[in-house]
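DOMAIN: structural biology
WANTED: fold as tokens
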Amino acid sequence: MSTFDIRKIGGRIGAEVTGVDLSAGLSDSVFGQINEAFLEHKVLFFRNQDITDEQQLAFAGRFGPLTRKHPMMRAVDTAAPHVLAVDGEDQRARSLAHRHQLHHRPFARYDAALRGAPAVRRLTP
């Protein structure tokens, strides 16, 4: 089993997880420790991970059932409806009122609060 580290990086929330390769899959023991860190720190950063959309979905799915795609955002492709593109240029082009709706109204229809949202940065400004 590989060794890894969870280091607090924020004042109130946030921790960096190092020594974990998300593309290789995780043992139940390692995932359990990561889940505990998520509950404690609320936000986890896994730097320099080269994972596919499928690997990201598999990792996210270990935290619980995945939600359907956001009703007002486009999916990356139809084969991966849970993977959304977050494009700063696209967001800036939308009106403020539309952006407000994007973040608040559509999720009111879910029976339970969303637990989290895994994100991968593909392009760094």
Observations:
- Helices lie at 28-41, 53-61, 88-93, 96-104.
- Residues 28-41 form the longest helix (14 residues).
